Amino acid sequence: MSERPLRLGVLGGTLDPVHLGHLAAAHAAARALSLDAVWLMPSHVPAHKASPSASPWHRFAMAALAAADDPLIVASDLELARPGPTFTWDTLQALAALGHDPLQIFFITGADAFAAIDTWHRFPEVLDAGHFVVVTRPGHALPEATRNHPAVAPRLRAVPRGGVLDPADGAGKCRIWLVEADTPDVSSTDIRQRVLTGQEVGTAVPPSVAAHIRRHGLYTPTPAARRLHGEY
Ligand code: ATP
Ligand code: MG
User: Fold this and answer.
1) Is pLDDT above 70 for 145?
2) Average pLDDT for residues 125-149, to the nearest whole number?
3) What's the CA-to-centroid distance between 113 and ligand 2, angstroms?
4) What strands lie across the sheet with 105-110, from one edge to the other?
5) CA of 109 to the centre of ligand 1 (A)
6) Total Cβ atoms within 10 A of residue 231
7) What domains, with CATH codes, occur in the chain?
């Protein structure tokens, strides 16, 4: 019996913090494209947005906590180990250098993030360094993600809602797979704001991540690690 090669999903971002929307997007992509694992990969210094609020160590810790009870998800430190701005191009090259076939790599983004793909480092070559999977996000439909990039149209492949596609149908080329999914309406920005204003975040992140945020005073003006001993 011939075994097919393992298909690896990668979900990158500041993950500041990781939340149920990220996990839902990872699962939707995995279901749609029969991925065997999804690596949650916190970026070091993001290329396209302000510096993260939580340190790289805390962001990785939260990704690892989110992965702990989820057989699909693995936390990856590949981008954190590389100094300087994080470019997906470099990440995909690093995976290739580790022996991963670009045709078995699926870089997952939300529709909001993909809408700015033409600003990414080494666009459009980056689209040949792995498959891309664009997952809908509340308020961000698929047309928004692609309408400003007519040049990518020949690469687009829509996965029917709830459906499963065999990426081998891509005829040996890196494609952009469009996945409709009902991911929860949460964002890291909203979670940071909620913590700052003393509101609960337990419905937006896994319980272990909520406990980590609380325990370490993340997203508050005085993170616990900086408080003087005895002030806990
Ligand atoms: P921030 O508010 O700080 O930008 P975020 O919630 O957008 O945080 P990011 O770390 O920026 O999270 O996102 C990483 C990736 O996950 C991006 O490609 C983003 O589009 C995607 N993503 C985030 N939330 C969802 C969601 N609810 N559904 C689908 N994709 C999502
Ligand atoms: Mg974002």
Assistant:
1) yes
2) 94
3) 7
4) 73-75, 37-42, 8-13, 105-110, 131-135, 176-179, 156-159
5) 8
6) 8
7) 8-185 (3.40.50.620)
